[in-house]
Amino acid sequence: MLSIEDLSAGYGKGLALHGVAIKVEKGEVVVLIGANGAGKSTLLRTISGVLRPKKGHILFQGQKIEGNKPHSIVKIGIVQVPEGRGIISRMTVKENLDMGAYLRSDKDGIIGDLERVFEKFPRLRERLGQNAGTLSGGEQQMLAIGRALLAKPRLLLMDEPSLGLSPNFVEFVFETIHELREKDGYTILLVEQNANQALGVADRGYVLETGRIVLEGESQALRDNEEVQRAYLGRSARTVET
Amino acid sequence: MILQQLINGLMLGATYSLVAIGYTLIFGVLGLLHFAHGEVLMAGAFMGLYIIMWSGLPLYITLPLAMVATGVLGIIIDVLAIRPLKKDFHLAPLLSTIGVTIILQNLAVKLFGGYGTRFPEAIETVNYKVGPLLISSANILILGVSLFLMVVLYFFIAKTKIGKAMRTVAESHTTAGLLGVNVDLIVLLTFGIASALAGTAGVMIGIVFHAITPFIGLTFALKGLVVMLIGGLGNVVGAMIGGLILGMAEVFSIVLLPTEINLQDIFSFGIMIIILIFKPTGLFGTRVTQG
Q: Distance from the CA of A227 to the CA of which of A113, A187, A218, B94 falls in 20 to 30 A?
């Protein structure tokens, strides 16, 4: 579905990604793990068109999309839940959700999808008229995910969805991701520092170090890999089943 | 007497509001102080003048035409003077708009001369006596049109899809893009709307003062700026109400203060300073956390 070849990108003159190649197949959850500054967010920003690649190709369903503007990338079905959640704080929860369906005009479809979002996150329904800036971090993450779902993503990009949340909400976010894949059949490319839990919900993973893919494989194989254990899971890490 | 001044103040304030709304819209979506906004108003006044003279059509047709023409001018300014600049140097667009100011002003002097140009009688001025009040048809027109435009704009921004997209762009270009908003198009549209409002104000000023010069931009740009600061940066409702407050304050300052020296501007800038001392975000502004 998504295939990235030899991608280099960065800010200013420096490069944050050096010849990165990854693949995401339909129905998969793929996780990118790596330390702070490894280039995980840069990769997602480049896929979404926020950043122009310096070199390489991004293919989505066989179509070259590198260099396209962010809005046209959303139009073809790649939707990102950005780092820091990207909530529009001066709008209500309802208006934020409306913005998720910005490119859609199928009113009935939107209403149906809105109901499904409320089923997943009942708390959003309670807070519809509230200013989104007043929500707690966990609620904002629900809103950000719900808003992205309203855009009818074919590929969902999630940038550190568990960052800065309380342990309960971290658990909830990973359960949600699991459910999105198992129940709703979404294809997800996930960026996480929380490697242990992320590998728990993912089919495959890539390890990014200073802008290069250094390791890739099935989630279980990555969890069993000694280097991954040492660097990202902590030495005494136990695998956690979700 | 007081009621009479109230009406005069509202009328003056309504034109200030129109100018300030434009400032605040552009500041909202680009974080840019559009220095040439006053000159856009001036250009709108001259375009209105020529549209009225050449076409001879009634004002309800010529005013919308002038609005569209000024809106197009605003869009051209965005495309030529602001968009090509790198966003990384945030002073560059500001300086660029100062350049536009100089270009538009000198162009106007070249075309129309540096002295005042008589504004055609766009409407027949009739004075209505309502009890002790004297209200001219020009007053009614200006108040009516301004309030109408403000109400329409308010609902446009609050309720429509494009209005919501404008607010999203104002909050974050990145977030807006990731939601599927064509950010460049929204910025373009914002320039169009802001400039059309300034053009309306320009034509109205022509109607009230009967003459316009290439230099009227500065005065109204400054007042619009004061109003934006009073109302709170990027806040449309604040700009509307701030304009009315400033207009009334100025009119009452003429009535209440000695007229031998011009205390009007001291008064209006004084009000701004006092408001900013006690509420640095402006009357309706909120603190923005930088993220």
A: A187
CB within 8 Å: B291 and A147:
no
Question: B264, exposed or middle or buried, with CB in 10 Å at 0-12, 13-18, 19+?
Answer: middle
DSSP A77: T
* Cβ(A145)–Cβ(A169) below 8 Å: no
Tell me whether residues A151 and B182 touch, CB distance under 8 A: no
- List pLDDT tens digits, range B257-291: 776 777 777 888 888 899 889 988 888 876 554 43
| Alpha helices, H only, B31-136 | 37-55, 59-77, 91-112
Q: How far is CA B105 from CA B19, B21, B49, B50, B108, in A?
A: 17, 22, 16, 17, 5
Q: Decide if B122 contacts B62 (C-beta within 8 A).
A: yes
Is B160 an 8 Å CB contact of chain A? no
* Greatest alpha-carbon span in chain A: 52
Output the six-digit token pair for B104.
């538009």
Statement: residue A32 has pLDDT above 90: yes
A182: Cβ contacts below 8 Å, ≥ 6 apart:
none
Alpha carbons A49 and A217: distance in angstroms, whole number: 27
List, for residues A112-127, the tens digit of each pLDDT value. 999 999 999 999 999 9
User: pLDDT value at position B287?
Assistant: 59
Which pairs from B157-164 meet CB under 8 Å and 24+ separation? Answer: B157/B236, B161/A98, B161/A102, B162/B186, B162/B189, B164/A91, B164/A95, B164/A98, B164/A99, B164/A102
- B-chain CB neighbours of A98 within 8 Å are 161, 164
Cα distance between residue B171 and residue A88, in whole Å: 6
Residue A59: which pLDDT band, with cuts at 50, 70 and 90?
very high
- Residue (of B105, B200, B223, B96) closest to B147 by Cα position: B200
Q: Do B180 and A75 touch (CB under 8 A)?
A: yes
Question: Chain B window 173-192: which residues touch A at a Cβ cutoff of 8 Å?
Answer: 174-175, 177-184
| B146, B18 contact by CB (below 8 A) | yes
DSSP for A36-68 reads: TTSSHHHHHHHHTTSS--SEEEEEETTEE-TT-
What is the pLDDT at residue B286?
65
Which residue of chain A comes nearest to B179, CA vs CA?
Answer: A100
Tell me whether residues A99 and B179 touch, CB distance under 8 A.
Answer: yes
What gap in Å lies between CA A91 and CA A140, rounded to an integer?
12
Chain B residues with CB under 8 Å of A157 CB are none
From CA A197, how far away is CA A183, in angstroms rounded? Answer: 19
Q: A67: Cβ–Cβ under 8 A, 6 or more apart, which residues? A: A49, A52, A53
Which residue, B67, B45, B14, is CA-closest to B239? B14
Amino acid identity of A153?
P
**SS3 state at B23:** helix
